[in-house]
Each structure stands twice: as structure tokens, then as C-alpha cells.
Write a sequence for this structure.
């Protein structure tokens, strides 16, 4: 039972990355458009003639802002499609279409049920419960939960019926053609049920969000601690998403509209030119001090602690991982380099420091948000550009510098005190377990004249137990997520020799951490497997 729950959560975490990957592009459009056309920015720099209302540049930036906003406004629909697509076993394109059909049918049914059988005034008593969704007015705002629910239902129907055989008279509707049909009818029923059940769920979520807010800094600490602690399990997307996108992260009125979800509140305030509420930003701003300053300092400590004969190799690895953390906020290459050396260094030191970073930013009333991860790009777009009066970004730099020193000295102390085998400190002549992509290519080029990409894909497949051991291969932002037939066949040293920062095996689920280059690695594996099948 526990394994099945983990399988489901792992799958959800993977599928969530599809719509979440849209957020940086949408956020940049919205951030640039809203920041440069905001009254505070225009008046601060005296740019009324260039960026003021009615100018060509203002109009163009407004288009960017509106275009980015439509992604955030329809994110639940994208989650429905992504979940249907990601959970489906085969014919995934049919599942994606069916999920979109199911989402619209659910809302049409639910809206009509409310109009005919419910009291809209009573429903309006719960803040954020009633709203406008994909063109349906006075309906229940289920947020991303609505998309996830219908996506899972459609995926279940798809996996059960996509090969169904009907009688000859109805044979045209057999197989995949049956899936959108059964999904549509089921979604109508789901909409009716949700019209009566979701108000209770919505009220419960709103209550829980208020309870978290009432905990104050303790609640912020728990959020930051759990968020960072779940990263090794790959379940952090499942945890933080409700805070970002539902009433669990707060409900606020912005420019006359009720908005729920911390990230939605933040971007609505940014677009409206209102100062960012630290209560919404507390779920984001704590990332910047340790991602931009802390992790690079920890990487420097690990480099200095490395053996002299290994420092050259470790330097390249740490510089690459540090730049990735600074600019993009993707930290797993660094995190896993010390997680596998010492779980205490990760859970007992880093996770605690990270949680306190969230608390400090909350206490200092910092209003810097983000789209995907807390790197320098997000910090510039959503902290510096909107202006100090909008986001109060300066404390991030002050605390970040302090965090840099804290991470450096704490890591140096624990590495030396307990002789932790961080990269470059392995016993004997054993090679360091982490490699850069170029290191791997150079190694393969010296061994043979074959295609380096194919050789890497081949080694990864062999490390996963061979082609016959693979059930499903997918990826999220930083790691391959693989379902295998037998987890004991996984060769972790071989996988690490391909450049993996770490390997996690939980029953039949395997996660291989490569960092932001994982998408290309996954594509190369798919092409290699297809080529092998043709031979």
C-alpha cells in the first residue's frame, strides 16, 4: 500500500512539472510588462514620455503582461491536461484531449447545477469559493485541484478503456475513440457531485490556510522545512503547489477581484501596481538567500575541503553547479553532492538553515516572488525591477551575504570534523562520483569513436537494469524518473559515472539526478531506444 501511494505521488510530482515549466516564460512576460509599465517604476525614473500610458512601448509591454497573465489564469486547465497526459500508459495524446474535454464538461455541469439547485449567495460567504473559470461565471473556483481531480479521473478511464472492443454496430467507437466519450459523460456526473461537495472542501482549505497564517513565523518555518526536506523524495512539487495556487496560500482582493493562491496574489498585485504583500511572498522569498548566496558558499567549502589531487576536477563541477543555483535556482546538483555524503548535513543543517531563511524574509516583510525557483533571474524580475517600494528586496541581499558566510563556515566545520566524503574526498584512488557533461564526453571520446550521446544513453539504460527492466522513463526539471520491474538490478555506480549527482531507488521507482540538462538526456534515451528497436 505504501509503495502504491509513493508511486502515485511520484507520478503526480512528475506530471506537475509540465504546466509548472510554463511559469518562467509566462512570469517573465507578466513581470516585465507589469514592472516597466507600473506607475511606481515610471515615476521613479521619470520615463513618462517613453513608458507612460498611451505610448507605443507601454502598449507593447501591456500585451506581454496580458499574454503572461492568461497562463496563470488558466493554469488549472493545463494541470488537467498534464495529469491526463502524464498518468496515461499509452496513447497519451488521446488522454490529453480527453482531459481537456472532461475539464470543460465538468465546469459546464457544475455551473448549471449551481444555477438550478444551489444558492449562490450562500456559496459566496466562503471567500474565494465562487468565481469565473474558463468563461463560466458564478461557478466554483476549484483551482488546480479541479484540474488534478478531473485529470486523474480521465487518466483512470483512459487506462481502462483505451483498448475496449464494442459490438460490431458500435465498433467505430471502440478503442481510443471511446475515451473522450466516456470522459465527457463521467465529467458531467463529477460536475454535479462537486457542486454539492466542493463547498465543504473549499471551506476546509480556506480554514487550513487561515490556520497556517495564524501560526505566523512557526508556520513559515514548517513550510520551509517540509519543502526542502521533501526534495530528495521528489515530492516537493506536490507539497508546495497548493500553497502557490489555492486558498491554502491565502485569499486577497486585488484591484477589485478576489484572488486565491500565494503566487496568483503576488502576480495580481504586481500587475495592478500594488506593493507585494509579504504574507503572500513568504512562500517564495526565503529561497533567494540560500540559493543565490548559501549554496555557492557551500560549494566553495566543499572545493577547499577536497584533496589536492582532486581539486581540479571538483572545481569544474562546483563552478557549474554554483552558477546553475545562482542564475536559475536549480540546486539539486549541489544538494545531492552533500546529501549522499552526509544525510545529517542535508536534513540537520541545510534544511534547518533554509527554513530559517523563509522566517527571516517573512519577519523583514520581503515581497519578492518567483515563477519556478529562487535564482538571480527571478530576483531581478520580481524583486529589483519593480522597485524597493514594491518588493522591499534589499534585505534579501543583506541576509544573503550573511548566509553565504554561515554556509561556508558550517560546511567546512562539519566536513573536516566528521571527515565527510564530499566530492574530492573519496577514499584511495576512487574517482569522484560526480562529473560534468564535458568530463563524460571527453572520457568516452578517449575510449572509442562511437557516438558519445548514444554511449551515454546505453550506459544509463544498462545502469537501470537493461531495456527489459524498464517500464516507464520520464523526467521532471532535474531528474530522470523511472519505473523499473526490479529495483535490485539498478547499478548506481554506473549511473553516477554518466554524470548523475545522485541515484535514489525506492522499490520499483528510480530517480537519477542530472540537473537542468535532464530533458535532453531523456530525449536522447528515447531516440536511442527507438533506434535499437528498429535494428
Amino acid at each position: 500500500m505504501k509503495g502504491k501511494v509513493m508511486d502515485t505521488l511520484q507520478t503526480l510530482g512528475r506530471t506537475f512539472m509540465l504546466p509548472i515549466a510554463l511559469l518562467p516564460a509566462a512570469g517573465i512576460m507578466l513581470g516585465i510588462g507589469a514592472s516597466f509599465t507600473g506607475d511606481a517604476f515610471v515615476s521613479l525614473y521619470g520615463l513618462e514620455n517613453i513608458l507612460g500610458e498611451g505610448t507605443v512601448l507601454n502598449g507593447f509591454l501591456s500585451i506581454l503582461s496580458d499574454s503572461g497573465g492568461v497562463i496563470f489564469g488558466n493554469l488549472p486547465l493545463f494541470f488537467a491536461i498534464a495529469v491526463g497526459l502524464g498518468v496515461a500508459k499509452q496513447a497519451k495524446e488521446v488522454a490529453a484531449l480527453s482531459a481537456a474535454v472532461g475539464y470543460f464538461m465538468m465546469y459546464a455541469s457544475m455551473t448549471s447545477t449551481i444555477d438550478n439547485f444551489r444558492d449562490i449567495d450562500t456559496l459566496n460567504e466562503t471567500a474565494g469559493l465562487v468565481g469565473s473559470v474558463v468563461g463560466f461565471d458564478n461557478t466554483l473556483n476549484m483551482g488546480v485541484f479541479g484540474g488534478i481531480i478531473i485529470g486523474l479521473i480521465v487518466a483512470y478511464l483512459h487506462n481502462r478503456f483505451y483498448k475496449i472492443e464494442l459490438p460490431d454496430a458500435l465498433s467505430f467507437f471502440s478503442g481510443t475513440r471511446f475515451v473522450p466519450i466516456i470522459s465527457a459523460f463521467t465529467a458531467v456526473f463529477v460536475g454535479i457531485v462537486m457542486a454539492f461537495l466542493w463547498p465543504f472542501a473549499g471551506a476546509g482549505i480556506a480554514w487550513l490556510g487561515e490556520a497556517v497564517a495564524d501560526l505566523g513565523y512557526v508556520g513559515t518555518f514548517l513550510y520551509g522545512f517540509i519543502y526542502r526536506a521533501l526534495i530528495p523524495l521528489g515530492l516537493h512539487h506536490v507539497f508546495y503547489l497548493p500553497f502557490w495556487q489555492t486558498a491554502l496560500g491565502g485569499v486577497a482582493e486585488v484591484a477589485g477581484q478576489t484572488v486565491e493562491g500565494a503566487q496568483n496574489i503576488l502576480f495580481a498585485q504586481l500587475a495592478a501596481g500594488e506593493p507585494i504583500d509579504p504574507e503572500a511572498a513568504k512562500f517564495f522569498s526565503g529561497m533567494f538567500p540560500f540559493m543565490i548566496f548559501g549554496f555557492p558558499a557551500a560549494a566553495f567549502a566543499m572545493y577547499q575541503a577536497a584533496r589536492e589531487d582532486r581539486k581540479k576536477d571538483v572545481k569544474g563541477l562546483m563552478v557549474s553547479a554554483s552558477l546553475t543555483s545562482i542564475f536559475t535556482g536549480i540546486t539539486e546538483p549541489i544538494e545531492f553532492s552533500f546529501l549522499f555524503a552526509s544525510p545529517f548535513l542535508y536534513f540537520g543543517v541545510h534544511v534547518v538553515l533554509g527554513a530559517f531563511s523563509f522566517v527571516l524574509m517573512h519577519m523583514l516583510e520581503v515581497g519578492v516572488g518567483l515563477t519556478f525557483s529562487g535564482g538571480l533571474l527571478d530576483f531581478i524580475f520580481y524583486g529589483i525591477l519593480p522597485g524597493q517600494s514594491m518588493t522591499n528586496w534589499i534585505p534579501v541581499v543583506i541576509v544573503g551575504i550573511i548566509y553565504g558566510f554561515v554556509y561556508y563556515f558550517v560546511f567546512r566545520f562539519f566536513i573536516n570534523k566528521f571527515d565527510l566524503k564530499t566530492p574530492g574526498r573519496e577514499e584511495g584512488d576512487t574517482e569522484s562520483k560526480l562529473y560534468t557533461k564535458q568530463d563524460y564526453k571527453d572520457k568516452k571520446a578517449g575510449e572509442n569513436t562511437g557516438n558519445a550521446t548514444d554511449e551515454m544513453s546505453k550506459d544509463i539504460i544498462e545502469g537501470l537494469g537493461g531495456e527489459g527492466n524498464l517500464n516507464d522513463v520520464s523526467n521532471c526539471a532535474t531528474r530522470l524518473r523511472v519505473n523499473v520491474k526490479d529495483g535490485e538490478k539498478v547499478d548506481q555506480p554506473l549511473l553516477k559515472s554518466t554524470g548523475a549527482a545522485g541515484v535514489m531507488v525506492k522499490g520499483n521507482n528510480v530517480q537519477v539526478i542530472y540537473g537542468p540538462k535532464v530533458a535532453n538526456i531523456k530525449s536522447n534515451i528515447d531516440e536511442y531506444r527507438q533506434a535499437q528497436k528498429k535494428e
